[in-house]
Every structure is written in structure tokens, then in C-alpha cells.
Amino acid sequence: MATDRYQQPDYYQVDELLTDEQKLIRDTVRAWVKKEVSPIIEEYAQRAEFPKQLIKGLAEQGCFGPTIPVEYGGGGLDHISYGLMMQEIERGDSGVRSTASVQGSLVMYPIYAYGSEAQRKKYLPKLASGEWMGCFGLTEPDHGSNPSDMITNFKDAGDHVVLNGAKMWISNSPFADIAVVWAKDEAGVIKGLIVERGMKGFTTPETHGKWSLRASATGELVFDNVQVPKENILPNVKGLKGPLGCLSKARYGIAWGALGAAMDCYDSALRYSQERIQFGRPIGGFQLTQKKLAEMITEITKAQLLVWRLGVLMNEDRATPAQISMAKRNSVEIALNIAREARQIHGGMGITGEYPIMRHMMNLESVVTYEGTHDIHLLITGMDVTGLNAFK
Ligand SMILES: Cc1cc2nc3c(=O)[nH]c(=O)nc-3n(C[C@H](O)[C@H](O)[C@H](O)COP(=O)(O)OP(=O)(O)OC[C@H]3O[C@@H](n4cnc5c(N)ncnc54)[C@H](O)[C@@H]3O)c2cc1C
To answer: How many angstroms does the Cα of residue 169 sit away from the middle of ligand 1?
Structure first.
């Protein structure tokens, strides 16, 4: 990839809404992404390999569990700081941000929110430091948008339970040390279990052939009579609200993250439009190019304000899952549209690894589907405003 010359667009001086601490956190993560992620990410994406060496840096930047209290190894930060971190990481690459989101929001958060004190102490500090990596198992081969019908289950066997079933599309699974797995007990109640690598009957085959999130490792979780100690069951939650609570945290991060990818595409397209000469002048001087850029910055500005406001509501513990759905859906939609328009502005160069556009565009095709698909989030908004459920 060409040198990273990224400059964040801020058309409405949204920076003034941030505290000095939030800006410092954002700038620190941005500098790390420019130094450590941008120079290598294209090569890793081309090779379809997760750059494992970034784990240490992500941990050092405090990107694993930024809102988890400091006593458990987290950052003890507010939600806008967390959002800004995700924005900066995804500006680099959605796959790298996925790793951070899974670790912080889908593994550390449920252990913190639903776990026993012993589970918190055992797992959280090691997850925060990146010594252990985790993954989150909810989706099954036959149950994606409808996880309540999951068939992965566990049966009581004295001091342990016996877990059977399979999860699919699990980010980080091929190298994760632990998995937070959602499964049904004998009464059909969904509970969370912490499954550790090395438990007999637990395997994590990698999924190959992805055209999207190529720099993120994805795989299955297969449970064949896995004996899980009862002390590994998360004691303080039951039912679908367990996984959905984690997903709200992660979707919030995605709302900021996808905006990061959108801003990177816009920034690259703007610069290219000023430097690329055709018909004797910069292509940015043509009205059709300006229309694309003007629409991009308009959508980016609206999204910046939306995620910032959502962050305020999150900090005040007032954000609803439906508000988070709206922001996730909006950010990913505008990011995909902006990536497609930016690709056109870059002409043929837009399909190469010299620029980040095509990688962002392909990555966003996963982001638009995972953590609730585009249409499912629309239905959540629809249900919220009408009071009528269109899912079933
Ligand atoms: C790269 C990647 C990483 C992922 N990482 C994880 C992870 O770490 N952990 C995890 O648990 N999962 C993960 N997922 C899974 C992801 O969350 C699911 O793919 C997603 O929830 C959609 O499920 P599905 O793929 O089975 O699609 P389906 O649920 O089969 O949906 C297919 C289509 O039908 C539509 N649809 C479904 N129901 C309705 C309805 N009621 N009304 C209208 N339309 C409907 C959907 O919107 C979609 O367009 C990942 C997925 C990908 C691609």
C-alpha cells in the first residue's frame, strides 16, 4: 500500500465535542495504526492471514476492553473513547477492528457483566493484556439471524456439563485460547459457557476462501461431548439477553468503526481527485467527481454527529438497543456507498492494493452482515417505532 497520508475529515468541527482525553486517545491509536497497521495490512489481506503480531500493540493501546474497569485490566474509559478507538482501528482495517471488538465486547464484557468474581479474576487481566485471546460463539450453521433456535446444548453430568453442537463464522476461533459459547441447557434455557482450548472434544477448524475480512481469522467451534466444568458457566445471565447484551456493546463499536473505514475511503478519494490529472486538470474539478465527494462528506458528517450523540447516551446508560441498531446500520451503509464511489474516483487504481478502497469495500460486506444483518437492524427500527414485530 502507498504511504498512509490519512487526514481525518471534520467538516462540522465535531472535534470540539470531544474532551482532550478523548482526542489524545484517538490520536495515539491513529499514530499506532499508521505505524503498525497500514504498512503491512494489504499484504496480510492479500495472503488471507491475520497479523498476529498486532495483538501486543492492540493490548498496549488499551484496545482490549477499553470500558472494562481498571481493576480487571481494562481501560476504565468512557464509551466515546471506546468508539474513537474502534474508528481508528477500522480506518486501518475492519478485520483488525473485528479482533479488538470480539476480545473486548464479546469476550471480556460478558465475563465482566455476567461472570463470577473468580471468572473475572481468572480471565479478564490475561485477555486485556492479549496473553489470552478469545472468541464468541453464537451463530450456528442453521441459525444466524435467529439464534434463539440454536441447537448447541449441554447436559448436567455432576461437577461438569457435557457440551455438544457447532458454531460457525466465529471470528478469532482458529487461534483463540477461550471461547464464550452460548448453548441451551436441558430446560432449553440459553446460557454462556467459557470453553478453553485443550478441552477434549473441542476443535476450531478455520474457514478458508473468504473474499472479505481476509486479514481476520474466521472458523468454526465444534463440540463433541466436551466436558466443561460447572465453574465455567457464566452464573449471572440466562436467555437471549446474554448474547444480545454483548452484541449491543459490539454493534456500538461497529457504528464508529465503519465510519472510520468510510473516512479513509473519502480521504483517499479526495486526495486522488486533487492529484489525478485528466483532460488537463485535476479530476476533482469535474462536477461529477464533486457530486460524489460532496455526498460522501455530507453522509460522513451526519454519521459523525450520530455516533457522537449515541456515545453520550451510552455514557449516561440511556442508549437503547434500537438506537444502537440504527447507528450500526447507518454507518455500514454509508461506508459501503462511500467505498463504492471512492473506488470509481480512483479509476483502475481503485481495484489495486496501492489504495485501501477495495479492501475496505470487501471488508464492509462482512460488517454489513455480522452482528445483525442490514435488514435485521432495519426491522429492529421498524419494530421500535411501530410496536409491531415483523420478524416472524
Ligand atoms: C466474517 C464474519 C465473521 C463473523 N463473526 C462472528 C462471530 O465472531 N461470532 C458469531 O457468533 N457470529 C459471527 N458471524 C456470523 C454473523 O453474525 C451471521 O452471519 C449473521 O448473524 C447472519 O446470519 P446468517 O449468515 O446465517 O444469515 P441468515 O440469518 O441466514 O440471513 C440470510 C438473509 O436473510 C435475511 N433474513 C433473515 N431473517 C429475516 C427476517 N425475519 N426478515 C427479513 N430478512 C431476514 C437476512 O437479513 C439475510 O439477508 C460472522 C459472520 C461473518 C461473515
So the answer is: 9
